Amino acid sequence: ATTVDSQCGSSQQATNMATSLVAAGVVDVAVACGVELMSRVPMGSSLSEGVGKAVPKSYFSRYEWTTQFEGAERIVDETVRVFGRLDALINNAAVLVPKAVPELSEEEWDLVLGVNLKGVYLCSKQAILCFRRQTGGGAIVNMASVNSFYAEGGIAAYCAAKGGVQQLTRAMAI
C-alpha cells in the first residue's frame, strides 16, 4: 500500500498522484489522507468516490492535522490494517499563511511549521518504523517546494518549513 499524506490545499494534488500511481501500475494500492476531501468522501471508501472516476484498489482515510504523534501512527497503522503492509509514503503537506515575519503570530508560525515540517517528520518516522518491521522495506517521497531554496517575501514560515523538509529528506537518506 502506498499512503499519500496530504493536508490542506494539496489534497487534490495528492489524490491525483495516488490515482496516477495506481493507473500506471507503479503501486497496487493507494491510500489518500487529507482534509480537503473530508466533506465529500466517507471514511473507508474508495478514492473513486472523491474524485469522480475509477481508482481501483484505493482507500480514503481522513484526519485533521498530522502534527501529533498519534495522527501519524494512526495513518500508518490503518494502512497496514487495511492492506497488510506499507510500501511507500508520499508526504505532500502544505499550509501557507501569507504574512511577513513582523505580522506573523506565534500560533501561525507553529501551524505552518507543524503541518509542513513536523507532520512530514512524524509520518516519515512512523513509516520507517513500519518498514523496519516488514520484509522488503519501503520508500518515502517528500514533496517540498521551489520555496525550499528560493525565498519569497511574505511567506517566511512556509519557506523555512519547506527548506526544513528538503534538509530532513537529505538527512534521512544518509
Q: Please, could you describe this protein's structure?
A:
The chain has about 170 residues and is of the alpha/beta class. It is built from 5 helices and 5 strands; from the N terminus they run E-H-E-H-E-H-E-H-E-H. The protein has helices spanning about 10-25, 50, 70-85, 105-135, 155-174, and strands spanning about 1-10, 30-35, 60, 90-95, 140. A 5-stranded parallel β-sheet has the order 3-2-1-4-5, sandwiched between helices. It is elongated and about 50 Å long.
Topology:
Layout: E1 2-8, H1 11-23, E2 30-33, H2 48-51, E3 58-61, H3 69-83, E4 88-94, H4 106-133, E5 139-142, H5 156-173
Parallel strand pairs: 1-2, 1-4, 2-3, 4-5
Helix pairs in contact: 3-4, 4-5
Overall pLDDT, averaged? 75
Low-confidence stretches: 5-10, 34-53
Shape: elongated
Q: Give the strand content.
A: 5-15%
Number of strands: 5
Order of helices and strands: EHEHEHEHEH
Query: What spatial order of strands do you see in the largest sheet?
Result: 3-2-1-4-5
Largest sheet: 5 strands, parallel
